[in-house]
Design a protein that fits this description.
heterodimer, A: mainly alpha, elongated, B: Ubiquitin-like (UB roll), Fumarate Reductase Iron-sulfur Protein, Chain B, domain 2, 2 domains, 5-stranded mixed beta sheet, 33% helix
């Protein structure tokens, strides 16, 4: 049994970037699904809790969670390794240095947005995943969204994620060798759209902070009252 | 007769030898002609230094027409100077004005140790080439011309990759000191052609491993390399290298 090809994945520059890219794309896909789930909050308590109950009734959900944690860890470990090497090998000592227009705000801040996302992730897990669920998931989430401090952190997290993905999505394709004069412009645009979609998380929290859901309910009552008259 | 001659101050990196401590030093250069190239301005300065009994500034140059890949300086923070997609030998003094202070530095890359002043050792790039940047050709009678059909677009793309002059600007400009554009171009110029086919997998694996062994950084796809490359080599070549490497790793017998 020759495991040379596995060693190459772990110990070569392109191998590690390959792991980073694949896990990054998987995490991007997860974020889209996660956002779709969160959009159920707009449909009210019954719809949201119904979906959460369905998810939790699956006996394999714990393995899915562990798998997701493994993907996160692989992405972080390979990224730290790659960046550690880059840090050691980066050109150093230029008295004057001007960037030539290749970098974007997203690409130049990958490390910082990554740190922000990680910090946010820990906060998010403590606040939601390992919190008291007895009041019901809808009440827990919307309750948190009424707190301006939480919403502030939540918005900052979504912004960091959007900035991270604005470079990360197209970068993952390039790393996997998917670069084609026909398709690359679409990949770049698609990556930006996915990044922009992450603003959806912030939008949901602001919706509940401004108590727009209550106004919707009031509006329903008014309509119902008018109709009853 | 061109415009009036002028004077500039150059701040140059001086380093006596490999591993020695270097420092920036200032020199006045008078009688600069706007039609002079940047390197000719340094020649004028060196003549002056020799006349004064000082050691002239060492810098690399050969063809001075932008095709050999010898020269390479960071001028005022710009790799190969302020002109886009150009070598520093093609930079002219008309880009500067009287009284300018010009900062001149070598490539400051770990894998390109400074030999003296502005001269760096780029043999790490040669070692990447030696690992597989060639095709093996059997001896014997020369094959008939045009016996191997090549798609015109592939031939053009291979030529665009082969335009790389190995100057190392991509490494000097990279935030991570990666040599991916260089190695990508050298793998691509052969991967695109049928002649490079038989050794494709071995080449991709060996050259990437050689590149890593030289201590270059990893690519974070920031494309600063493409922005400075004097030969406008495209980052699509890096993607091709990634593809060649991953396919070779997972699908070849190696």
């Amino acid at each position: 049994m020759d495991i040379g090809f596995v060693k190459r994945v772990i110990f070569t520059s392109i191998g590690r970037k390959f792991v980073m890219a694949v896990t990054g794309l998987a995490l991007g896909a997860f974020m889209l699904v996660h956002l779709a789930e969160n959009l159920l909050l707009f449909y009210g308590e019954k719809a949201y809790n119904g979906w959460v109950d369905l998810l939790l009734s699956n006996p394999f959900i714990i393995y899915a969670e562990l798998g997701l944690a493994a993907v996160f860890l692989l992405h972080i470990v390979t990224a730290v390794w790659v960046r550690w090497e880059d840090w050691r090998n980066a050109p150093a000592g230029y008295e004057e240095r001007r960037w030539q227009g290749g970098r974007t705000i997203g690409s130049a801040t990958m490390l910082y947005t990554a740190a922000a996302i990680l910090a946010y992730l820990v906060y998010h897990l403590v606040d939601f995943r390992f919190a008291d669920h007895s009041m019901g998931f809808y009440a827990m989430v919307t309750g948190a969204f009424r707190d301006p401090v939480f919403v502030g952190v939540y918005i900052a997290g979504s912004l960091a994620l959007a900035l991270h993905l604005s470079h990360g999505m197209q970068s993952a394709f390039q790393t996997l060798g998917v670069n084609h004069p026909k398709y690359t412009p679409f990949i770049k645009l698609g990556g930006l759209l996915v990044a922009l979609t992450m603003a959806g998380f912030a939008m949901i929290s602001v919706y509940f902070l401004l108590e727009l859901d209550q106004k919707k309910v009031e509006h329903h009552y008014q309509v119902a009252a008018t109709e009853a008259r | 007769m061109s415009e009036k001659k002028f004077g500039v101050t150059v701040r140059v990196w001086r380093q006596a030898g490999p591993g020695e401590k270097g420092r920036m030093e200032s020199y006045e250069v008078k009688g600069v002609d706007p039609d002079m190239s940047f390197l000719e301005m340094l020649d004028v300065l060196n003549e002056d230094l020799v006349r004064r009994g000082e050691t002239p500034i060492a810098f690399d140059s050969d063809c001075r027409e932008g095709i050999c890949g010898c020269c390479g300086l960071v001028v005022n923070g710009d790799v190969h100077g302020p002109d886009e997609h150009s070598t520093v030998c093609q930079l002219h003094m008309r880009r500067f004005k009287d009284g300018d202070v010009i900062t001149v530095e070598p490539w400051r890359v770990k894998s390109f140790p400074v030999l003296k002043d502005l001269v760096v050792d780029r043999s790490s790039l040669d070692r990447i080439m030696a690992a597989g940047g060639y095709v093996s050709v059997d001896t014997g009678a020369a094959p008939d011309a045009n016996s191997v059909p090549v798609d015109k677009d592939d031939a053009e793309e291979a030529m665009d990759a082969a335009a790389c002059i190995g100057c190392g600007a991509c490494v000097a400009a990279c935030p991570n000191g990666a040599a991916m554009l260089f190695t990508g171009a050298k793998i691509s110029q052969l991967a695109l052609l049928p002649q490079g086919g038989p050794e494709k997998a071995k080449r991709a694996l060996d050259m990437v491993e050689a590149m890593d062994a030289e201590g270059f950084g990893n690519c974070t796809n920031e494309y600063e390399c493409e922005a400075v490359c004097p030969k406008e080599v495209k980052v699509a070549n890096i993607a091709r290298m990634n593809r060649e490497f991953l396919l070779a790793n997972f699908l070849s017998k190696r």
